[in-house]
Amino acid sequence: MGKQDMITAAVVAVLLLLGMQAHAAPLSATSALSQLRQLRDSSPDRVISLDDAQFAKFGRSVGREFSLIVFLTAHQMSERPQLKLGDLRKEFGYAAQALLAGPDPDAAFFAEMVFEDSPKVFHALGANQVPFIFRVDPAFKVSMQSMVIPKTDRMNIDTVRAKYPWTAEVIVEFFSTPRAGRQQLQFGQVDRPSFLKSPWFPYVAAGAVAGAIGLVYLLWRTIARHPAFWAVGAVGVFWFSVSGGMYNIIRGMPLFLKDKQGKMQLFTGSRSGQLGAEGFIVGSGYVLFSLSVALLTHGMPHVKNSVIRGSLSYILVALAGFLAVQIWQVYTSKTGYKVSSYLLDADF
């Protein structure tokens, strides 16, 4: 090898060594803050997307005085509706914007990491389920080999008792609660986008009020003056009440269930509750029975043709009797009591 070749090889070796040292050198806190601000400002909801390398770079920055609050997710889990990761991710963004509204927006940066892009962080944390939100405090030492996040700094199903999916208020309260030896974060008000805050809302509200007044006036001039309108309304209220409509709403009862074979189940064998469809079916039976009796006593006397009047009367009596038997059977099956006719001395 000639002298010139030796000099060239030495220069290349020195440059490679300097490059490796420069690459291995930790990032300063000032540079980290500057880069994180740029990434945050470019994000619509102020949540930064990080991968393994970026997490290690920012987490190991020299003199770091800021926290990282990271939302762990996975593309393969986002397809499961029961996890509601999309709703939780939206609330996480609202919490990030609430921090910006606080007195020290650079005290922490909200970030998102996806398993498919950041497997090392998941393995280091031992995160084998989502949702998983954790905080890297300035005093916490970041390691890509193994990291044990304290319970007070991680949000998952085991550490949070609030109703899932957690709201932005729950996230803010969790990370702003004072803890011994932990940086105190101060958040602003959680501001959710709402149509009520839109400049168009006053005009739409005024139009809706004017339309409602016009509709009420039109109904009063036409339909509302007829007794049939109030009669139908009274029957509707009666049907809703005897169907247990308020019970279904208060208890959150489902309309129906499915058995082990996947067949629709409208009635339950339980004596302590009812399904929505069960109540509506029995309530409809009450309404039909009542209407049958009402037509028999108030409608049939006005029919002049004796043949038609007699035929309809028999039909209404048969219908009322059939409905009464069905309602009694449902009653006995739900309560376990026997209903006796007393007159015929027979049990239904």
Helix and strand layout, with pairings?
Layout: H1 3-24, H2 29-41, E1 48-49, H3 52-59, E2 67-73, H4 85-100, E3 108-114, H5 119-125, E4 132-136, E5 154-155, H6 168-176, H7 201-221, H8 227-242, H9 245-251, E6 257-258, E7 264-265, H10 276-299, H11 306-335
Parallel strand pairs: 1-3, 2-3
Antiparallel strand pairs: 2-4, 4-5, 6-7
Helix pairs in contact: 4-6, 8-10, 10-11
Question: What does this 3D model show about the protein?
Answer:
- The strands form two sheets. The chain has a five-stranded mixed beta sheet with strand order 1-3-2-4-5. A two-stranded antiparallel sheet has the order 6-7.
- About 4% of the residues have low confidence.
- Helix 10 packs antiparallel against helix 11.
- The chain is elongated.
- The protein has eleven helices and seven strands.
- The protein is of the alpha/beta class and 348 residues long.
CATH superfamily of the largest domain: Glutaredoxin
The main β sheet shows up as:
5 strands, mixed
Low-confidence stretches: 10-24
Global structural class: alpha/beta
- How many domain regions? 3
**At the first level of CATH, what is the class of the largest domain?**
Alpha Beta
Helix fraction bin: 40-55%
The tally of strands reads 7
The CATH architecture of the largest domain can be named as: 3-Layer(aba) Sandwich
Mean pLDDT, to the nearest integer, reads: 84
Approximately how much beta-strand content do the residues carry? 5-15%
Distance between the termini: 112 Å
Task: Quote the CATH topology of the largest domain.
Answer: Glutaredoxin
Write down the Rg.
35 Å
* Succession of helices and strands: HHEHEHEHEEHHHHEEHH
Shape: elongated
Tell me the strand order in the biggest sheet: 1-3-2-4-5
Q: Can you count the helices? A: 11
